[in-house]
Every structure is written in structure tokens, then in C-alpha cells.
Design brief:
The structure is a single chain. With about 525 residues, the protein is an alpha+beta fold. Helices cover about 10% and strands about 20% of the residues. It has eight helices and 22 strands. The strands form six sheets. It has a seven-stranded antiparallel β-sheet, with no helix packed on it. A six-stranded mixed beta barrel has the order 8-19-16-18-17-20. The chain starts with about 50 loop residues before the first strand and ends in a 7-residue tail after the last helix. The relative contact order is 0.14.
Amino acid sequence: MKHPFYKSLVAVGAVAMAGLVACSDDSSSPSVPQGPTGDVCAGIVATEQVSVVNIGTAKLLVYPIDISGVGQVTLADGTPYGTFDGAFIYDLNGAQVMAAGYADMANKCAATSTTPSTDPTVPGTDPTVPGTDPVVPGTDPTVPGTDPAVPGTDPTVPGTDPTVPGTTPEVPNNPELNADGFPTIESYGAPPAEYTKDISGNGKTGWNTRYWDACKPHCSWIAKGEEGKTDTTTQESYEKGMTTARNCNIHDVEVPTFTLGHAVQQYWMGYEGTTSACEGTDGGKGVFTCTDMAPIAVNENLSYAYVAGPGSSTTCGRCFHLQYDGSFIDASSTNAPKATHKALKGKHLVVMTSNIGHDVKDGQFDLMVPGGGPGIFNALNIQVNGQGIEWGAQYGGFLTHCQAKLGYDNTLEAYQTCVKDMCDAAFGNAGLPNLLRGCHWFADWFMAADNPTYNWEEVECPQYLLDHYLTTLNKEKSNNYAWHTDWSTYKKGDELETLECTDKGCECPDDMAAKGACKQ
């Protein structure tokens, strides 16, 4: 079985965590960093105790931070590589290479030399020969995949060694960013061929339903051992479970997925999921699905989306490739596929599970699409509070409303126009452009197809879906973010309030207390 895994670390706008290990069964995928056992300390040249970060294509030796506020970083042989400031590793030009906090610096190796190796007799280290200057990491032409003249083989960018399976970079070093601060879909480059290969004869079949309730995703909650949620027994199990899915406040600003519990007391430091907008009587203070989890087209034949999967079998963070067969779940000799289903035939959709649905059956993926109907819960009418909005059917949303209005055997164009008119009326002035984009996607790319059927297989997750899924705040299984009952006032760039907790209880740090923070 394939599981999603962290691909190459993205320099800007994505989740870059040096301490995460690959979750794939493919043992050739790099783990960052590796433990201090085995050969992690073998062959290194260090003048004092160092931390070792293995980026797959090379080992980086991180020296202690000195009085200047930085620590030196070298390659395993002592060749200068860059610097470390406690949060990031930089190359010799000052460019940020990867995130690496103090928590990642656990793999200690003792000093092995008094002088770093600079032997010019070592092949590939003659600075008079182009491409062999040891001051420029990874330019030894005797090492496969390190020739800087070959695009995508720069070892200063983690995960770009073409000799290592699964490390082809999807995002350039300086991608164009969208309004949400993430790389644009075009920045991810050509998608893997497996996402559009023909799987029409693989035997696994299923169908889509649809919804968008705007609630906090199930995969944003924390639990230990509960089906569909994150195992927080250890940091390793937390990372393996894909940490937790992002969530946002009513203004679509990412907030913590879980915090210190609101009943923290002496000798007990529990954690709670941030309150969902679908709970309680004042949902506007709770948290919602981040709107950038709306479906998006990669090209006319491939799209990415998030889904709720069966609670009986699907765990969070898994990805699936769907290929549509031109039919639908209720097709029969007297109920033939419609023009919408036929127009969708042959298209491919890669989906990632961010929710679980206890009413979702095996093989069914409940597609998260704005305007798809709220289903059991509804926070969308809190987040988008326009007057006189026609939300359509509770189950089926805009399309079901259009079918009731136009009949069930009208033209493709008629359904597309009707759905898009409802999209514009609901989301056109809501200030949440991702909802409008995703709603139009359903009409234009998905062809307004009602409960279409497909063949499916499990695949590794696209970096785009990983980047928009993984929390950028709760990277550790424990944290000291303060509990709040109201997240509606939190703005992008605001400092998150924290508590300092010991076995004596929790106190607000002086600098936060001075701001009047930490009031629970």
C-alpha cells in the first residue's frame, strides 16, 4: 500500500520541516534527519561536536551557535556549506535552504579532526576547474546527480537528486505566490504521469457525492488511536499520521488546530482541538475549513481536491487517483447517464482525505466543493452571511436545486449556467475568492456531474495537496498555544499567545502578559 509522504522541502509558502521523516514504504525516500545510530557519524570531519542533518543527497554538519548568533554548517568532509541561526540553514550566498529548528539538532557526533579537510588531491575539488569548487557544495562531477549544469540536480536544494526515487522537485526555488501565500498551481510544474494513466480496468469502482459545510475538518482534531484521526502517542506517530489538517478562522486566516486545554491545571497539561464553527451557539468565533482547500484544475484533464472518506476504513492524509467512466451511481436501463456524466468521462481527479464521514461508504469519496450542499452541519451560512442567498438543497446544493428547476435531462450548458449563476450570487461578493473558484470548477471542469462513478487507486500525494493540508502551526504533538473561545479577531501576522507550563501549572509569559494576552 502506498502512503503519502513529505516530498522535497519547499523554500517559500509551503510546509518545510527538517525533522519530518518519510512515510512511504519506499526505503529509498530520504529521511530528515536520521537517528544517531548506524553510520550517521561515519566519515565526518568535524573540529568540535556537531549535529548531523541528512538531506538524502548529503550530510550537513551543524556547529554550535557562537557569540555572533550563527553556527557554521559544512559538508561531511568539512567543506564549508553555510550557516545556521537556530531556525534555518543558509547556503554560502545567504539563501535560505531549509527550516531546521533546535529540536531538529538532536543527532550529535563528536569531534574527529582539528583541521577541516581541504586536500586538493581529492578528485573534483580543484577550484580552477569549472564546477569543482569545494566552496560550492555538491559540485563534484564524480558524484551522480550533482552537476549544477543539469537542471534539477542542485544538492543545495533538499530532495533534488535524480538518482533518488521520488525526489524530483515539483516547485521551483522562487515560485510565484498566490494571494494566500502559497505557490501558484502552475509553479508545481508538470504533474506525475501516474495521475493521468489509464486505470479504467483496475477493478476498484466508486462514486462521488459532494458537500461543503465549512466546518473544522475531522483531520484537524487530535486523538490517540481513534479511526480517522491523528495518533499523538509519540512525535513519530504524529508525523506519520500527517500531523493535523490546517483550519482557519472566519476571515480565512490559519489558526492552531489544537491548543492547551482550557482546563489546564497543576500536574495536568491536556490538549484540545480548536472549537469548530459547527459547534455551540456562536460559530463565528470557532474555526472553519480553509477556503484554499476548494478544488482546483491542474489542466483540462486533471484536477486536485479534498474529500471526506469512509470513517470505517479511511485515515487522514491518504490520496487517491480517480478516473471517471462516464456513468453515475443510479444508472440503469431506464435511467441512462446524462450529458454531464458523459462530458466528464476520461478525466482524472487526485483527492486527499481531510475529513471522515460515518455515512460515507467504501469506494465513495464525498467531494468537498463549495455549493455542494452543507449536509448534516452548516457553518457556511455563518462565514458567508449575505442576504437572500439561495443555498440550494441541504444534500446536493446548487446542482440539485438546478435539476429541480430545469428537470433531470436538460443540456450540459443549461446546468453549467444555472450552477454558475448560483455561485456568483452566493460567493461573488463574499471576499472569499477560493469559494467562487471552487464553485465554478464544479460547473466548468467537473461538468456539473451528479454522483459520477469512477475507477480508483491509492497514490502518493501531490505536493500541492500536502502544502494546503498540513498545519503550519501545530508541527509538534504538544505545544503551548493558549486556549481561546473566540478566534474571530485573530489576524494574519498576529503573535500567537502562549503559556509557560510546568508541573506547577501554567503561567502567561511576561511579554505576553504585558500585552494583556493569555486571558482564557
